[in-house]
TrEMBL record:
Name of the protein this chain belongs to: Tetraspanin
Disulfide cysteine pairs (residue numbers): C148-C181
Subunit and interaction comment: Interacts with claudin-11/CLDN11 and integrins.
Native species: Xiphophorus maculatus
A Pfam family reported for this protein in Swiss-Prot or TrEMBL: Tetraspanin
Segments passing through the bilayer: 12-37, 49-75, 87-108, 207-234
Length: 252
């Protein structure tokens, strides 16, 4: 009776976890898509496209979780030995993949600062203030979004080609923090004081941490799913009375 109770509890938890897997699939795909969209906004400051590998993997895992949830629910309700075994094997593979995502996430997170430091000066040098220039759009977007100005502070604009050519002793309007500001350096109090380099690094590292924590959270849930499936499989194989009950027989 205790064995039957244990199996029933494990099955209930397993069905519930499969519903969570479907929700997790949507969340993983959302996180992966968010990384892609954000990378597109900051790609001029971070040129290593391999940073997107964790996002690609996490989207693929999300799509696979839809299938896993379907297999798990069917196998649990029908108590199919083959189905539950397949479920555990696929979960194990996905778990290993998410561990790889965590490792890659930490590796690329550590590379962010060097990548940004290397590329940001080049991007600022290529700024020309026109909307047709990709670097100009990227810098104006980042300065408005992160409320920053220049690389380390607004005075960095004095060393750019745009400043030398404009000769008006001002910085781009995107550096302004109040309405009516013209970007003039004669009124530095109207400009964002913090530089963009540190904030871009912080933003990109935060994105990587979203990926890492998402992968860790759902890896833990998958471990619980594997444990429950293994409990059902083990109890089912070790309890002849339960096997007879499932097959429709009677116990003498």
């Amino acid at each position: 009776m205790m064995g039957q109770c244990g199996i029933t509890s494990s099955k209930t938890v397993l069905v519930f976890l499969n519903l969570i897997f479907w929700a997790a699939a949507g969340i993983l795909c959302y996180v992966g898509a968010y990384v892609f969209i954000t990378y597109d906004d900051y790609d001029h400051f971070f040129e290593d496209v391999y940073t997107l590998i964790p996002a690609v993997i996490i989207i693929a895992v999300g799509a696979l979780l839809f299938l896993i949830g379907l297999i798990g629910c069917c196998a649990t309700v029908r108590e199919s030995h083959c189905g539950l075994t397949t479920f555990v094997v696929i979960l194990l593979l996905v778990f290993m993949t998410e561990v790889a995502v965590v490792v890659l996430g930490y590796i690329y997170r550590a590379k962010v600062e060097n990548e940004v430091n290397t590329s940001i000066m080049k991007v600022y040098d290529e700024y020309n203030g026109t909307n047709s220039n990709a670097q100009s759009r990227a810098i104006d977007y980042v300065q408005r979004q992160l409320q920053c100005c220049g690389i380390h502070n607004f005075s960095d604009w004095k060393h750019t080609h745009w400043y030398e050519e404009s000769k008006n002793n001002s910085v781009p309007i995107s550096c302004c923090k109040i309405a009516g500001c013209t970007g003039s350096l004669t009124h530095p109090e109207d400009l964002y004081q913090e530089g963009c380099e540190a904030l871009v690094v912080k933003k990109l590292q935060e994105i990587m941490m979203y990926v890492i924590w998402t992968a860790l959270t759902f890896a833990a849930i998958q471990m619980l799913g594997m444990l429950c499936a293994c409990v059902v499989l083990c109890r089912r194989s070790k309890d002849p009375a339960y096997e007879l009950l499932i097959s429709g027989g009677t116990i003498a």
